[in-house]
Amino acid sequence: MQRARVVITGIGLTSPNGDNLSSFRSNLLAGVSGVEFMEHRYIGKVPAGICHFDALKYQGRKDIRNGTRAGSISIYCSHEAVADCGVDWAGVDKSRVGVYIGFTEHGSVETEYEVFNISQFNYDVRCWTHHHNPRTVANNPAGEVTMNMKITGPHYCIGAACAAGNNGVIQGVQMLQLGEVDFALAGGVSESIRSFGIFAGFKSQGALAENADPTKASRPFDKARNGIVVSEGGCIYTLERLDDATRRGAKIYGEVVGYCMNSDATDAVLPNPVRQAECMRAALKMSGIAADDVDIVSTHATGTPAGDAQECKALREVFGASKNTRINNTKSFIGHAMGAAGALELAGNLPSFVDGMIHPTINIDEIDPECAMEQLVINKTQRLPRAETILNNSFGMLGINSCLIVKKIA
Questions:
Q1: Concatenated DSSP letters for 13-57?
Q2: Which of 65, 91, 181, 221 is deepest in the core (most CB within 10 A)?
Q3: Mean pLDDT value of segment 225-246
Q4: How far lies 230's CA from each of 97, 120, 297, 332, in Å?
Q5: Exposure of 23 by Cβ count < 10 A (0-12 exposed, 13-18 middle, 19+ buried)?
Q6: CATH architecture, range 258-404
Q7: CA–CA gap between residue 73 and residue 62 (Å, rounded)
Q8: DSSP code for 123
């Protein structure tokens, strides 16, 4: 069966170093980090990626108060994506719009807040908010988007750990190809910096980044890397079938030509480079291209000693002989935006199709020999020999892997 071709026509995002694609891209090319210190309850001062978008742009104060941070991020990014794609939103059949949002986890932030709140009242459950249940159900961020934007088509969230941003896009592509919807809002979001549990868990694991300068804390591939910088953020794409996008004269960022999701089935935390390599190869096969046809590999690397080294083993296996390929990392600028990571990192590289540049991996003072790769772009922006294909990696706990390939439309 011939699959319908699916393209990206709009991008809405918020990240620690930019609240739209233009500012995000400019800061990536200029080497500007968005990581700063924040004071976290019980943990103290930690480096984190904090977004500074205007939530009131698309929501009222009451809606923000009754909803969730993940919902606000999703609403902001979805509106921005629709505006960017140039569609006549009033004329769109909202019953044919699907909302597919990936996330790492949801509900813990709200539950932690409420437990703390009732602790101030001798744990009297009468002080527990009645908004708790709709805030914590697994479809919350996507559901908040449908209510805000009056979308009556399908909506749900994809729980896929830190692979969720890619997987949200993949879900949107599949639903368009199946004919279930005619227009998709798809990507990933994260409200993780508000969770005590995430910070405490990484700290207990010895995987929480520390540095006297917060902008230097996220340093994938560097010999002195010491862990993850937790970040919030979001990126939502408008996806359409190519025929529909062409018919309305839409601008097209790129075509999703291949993808793969698979599982390590070996360890809850330590990545398996064999499975990661298999995931990349399967995506390449689906796309009908060879490894040397890929111009940019956007890596998942989070700044943990073992995780980065494992991914580099997989990258060498697949791209070791690829002369045209360049490799970079966006987390060095913004930290790890968890469920939003894959979607944001792809967005940071898509403008390469227009400007021919690739942003670097920053904060590499001394490359770890286990991570050394000829194709790695370090500290300085480079001009690409060719800019037509991006492979975007996202991997997550419990061994979930995803790979997404986007090509420039000729």
A1: EEBTTBSSHHHHHHHHHHT---EEEEEETTTEEEEEE-----GGG
A2: 221
A3: 98
A4: 32, 28, 22, 12
A5: middle
A6: 3-Layer(aba) Sandwich (3.40)
A7: 16
A8: T
Fold of 6-247: Peroxisomal Thiolase; Chain A, domain 1 (3.40.47)
Look at strands 97-103 and 233-241 and give their pairing. unpaired
Q: Residue 298 to residues 34, 77, 165, 344: CA-CA distances in angstroms?
A: 18, 21, 13, 11
**Average pLDDT, rounded, for the chain:** 97
Assess whether pLDDT exceeds 90 at residue 98: yes
Cβ atoms 161, 398 nearer than 8 A = yes
Radius of gyration from C-alpha coordinates of the chain: 20
- How does 346-380 read in b/e, with b if 16+ C-beta sit within 10 Å? bbbbbbbbeeebbbbbbbbeeebeebebebbbbee
* d(C-alpha 190, C-alpha 384), whole Å: 31
How many Cβ atoms are within 10 Å of 95's Cβ, its own excluded? 11
Tokens of 60: 């009222």
- As a dihedral over the C-alpha atoms of residue 230, residue 350, residue 168, residue 68, rounded to 10 degrees, the angle is 50
**pLDDT (mean) for 21-40:** 97
**Domain boundaries along the sequence of the chain:** 6-247, 258-404
Q: Give me 261's structure tokens.
A: 């999701």
Residue 41's pLDDT is 83
Where does 139-214 have alpha helices with state H? 140-149, 164-178, 196-205
**Confidence at residue 225, expressed as pLDDT on a 0 to 100 scale:** 98
- Residue 381 is encoded by which pair of tokens? 């922006």
Residue 387 has pLDDT above 90, yes or no: yes
Tell me the pLDDT band of 42, cut-offs 50, 70 and 90.
confident
Classify residue 138 by its DSSP letter: T
Identify the band that residue 1 occupies on the pLDDT scale cut at 50, 70 and 90.
Answer: low
Catalytic residues: 162, 300, 336
Distance CA 282, CA 262 (A): 9
User: The pTM is what?
Assistant: 0.97
Residue owning tokens 């090509």:
407
